[in-house]
């Protein structure tokens, strides 16, 4: 140790020894682990001072030194769980109602592919896809697997399936193409605006919003037999129009059934108009409330 002669007195040497020994110990401890910095942080917070001597250094408990109690840094493992972390616990995409929804999508696509050439298999696949709509809801309630993803997929499958069938009907009945286009536009616009207004108001589905002010919509959504008859009659009406175009000598009972289902389809179109009006009023009321808060 190269020191000046004036520093080689016994008192100075003892002070120099303790200083270098304590400094090397602090550096060695900090290099081995990050406990040194964490200990220093806790001791400073406990004593309220910025420095302390080794002799007066208090001991820390095991709970204070535990890595679980240390301040977390902005690392991927310590941040809030992202969307993929939930999938390790519960795979929403493999829920039974969603699997039924995938089967509905496959059947609908198969029916669209068969419509130009094979009317009966196409209608079978289409009606089976529509019929499964009733089973996925029962499965969701029975298994407690109701999800927002499943509800959205369910509604989109219904809208897209009806729209594609109406496109084929517009090709088969060119003189009624405007009515089919109007039906498509009304169905999509009313459901989309109705769903959007219900989401803004805080509901998870367009079937669960407050309909106490509208008795028709309340009956339509709260009575399952009414909802089933309306949806089944509407789909059956369009399927009968498609089938009758491919049958040369249809049975006599098909035309009365077509007229009955046509009446149900007209009533459902009127409910879609009511959807559109009610959702527009809800959106206007929300806009008025927001403007009143700003003024």
TrEMBL record:
Keywords: Lipid biosynthesis, Lipid metabolism, Magnesium, Manganese, Membrane, Metal-binding, Phospholipid biosynthesis, Phospholipid metabolism, Transferase, Transmembrane, Transmembrane helix. GO terms for molecular function: CDP-diacylglycerol-inositol 3-phosphatidyltransferase activity; metal ion binding. It is found in: Membrane. Its EC number is 2.7.8.11. It catalyses: a CDP-1,2-diacyl-sn-glycerol + myo-inositol = a 1,2-diacyl-sn-glycero-3-phospho-(1D-myo-inositol) + CMP + H(+). One of its GO terms (cellular component) is Golgi apparatus. It is a multi-pass membrane protein. Gene3D superfamilies: 1.20.120.1760. Its cofactor is Mg(2+); Mn(2+). The chain crosses the membrane at residues 92-114, 160-179, 226-245, 257-277. The keyword Cell inner membrane does not apply. Residues 52-84 are annotated as: Disordered. One of its GO terms (biological process) is phosphatidylinositol biosynthetic process. Belongs to the CDP-alcohol phosphatidyltransferase class-I family. Catalyzes the biosynthesis of phosphatidylinositol (PtdIns) as well as PtdIns:inositol exchange reaction. May thus act to reduce an excessive cellular PtdIns content. The exchange activity is due to the reverse reaction of PtdIns synthase and is dependent on CMP, which is tightly bound to the enzyme. This is CDP-diacylglycerol--inositol 3-phosphatidyltransferase. It comes from Poecilia mexicana.
């Amino acid at each position: 140790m190269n020191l000046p002669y004036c520093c080689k007195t016994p008192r100075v040497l003892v002070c120099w020894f303790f200083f270098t020994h304590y400094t090397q110990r602090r550096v060695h401890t900090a290099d081995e682990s990050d406990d040194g910095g964490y200990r220093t942080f806790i001791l400073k917070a406990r004593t309220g001072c910025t420095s302390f001597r080794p002799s007066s250094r208090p001991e820390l408990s095991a709970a204070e030194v535990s890595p679980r109690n240390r301040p977390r840094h902005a690392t991927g493992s310590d941040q809030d769980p992202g969307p993929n972390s939930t999938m390790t616990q519960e795979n929403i995409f493999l829920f039974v109602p969603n699997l039924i929804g995938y089967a509905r999508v496959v059947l609908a696509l198969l029916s669209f592919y068969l419509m130009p050439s094979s009317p009966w298999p196409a209608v079978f696949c289409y009606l089976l896809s529509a019929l499964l709509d009733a089973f996925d809801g029962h499965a969701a309630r029975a298994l407690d697997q109701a999800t927002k993803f499943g509800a959205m997929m369910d509604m989109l499958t219904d809208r897209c399936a009806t729209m594609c069938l109406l496109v084929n009907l517009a090709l088969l009945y060119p003189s009624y193409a405007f009515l089919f286009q109007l039906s498509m536009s009304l169905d999509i616009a009313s459901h989309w605006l109705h769903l959007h207004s219900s989401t803004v108001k805080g509901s998870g589905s367009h079937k669960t919003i407050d309909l106490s002010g509208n008795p028709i919509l309340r009956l339509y959504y709260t009575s399952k037999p009414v909802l089933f008859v309306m949806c089944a009659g509407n789909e059956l009406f369009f399927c009968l129009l498609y089938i009758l175009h491919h049958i040369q000598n249809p049975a006599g009972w098909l035309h009365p059934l077509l007229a009955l289902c046509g009446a149900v389809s007209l009533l459902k179109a009127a409910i879609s108009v009511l959807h559109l009006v009610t959702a527009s009023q809800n959106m206007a009321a929300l806009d008025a409330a927001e403007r009143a808060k700003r003024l």
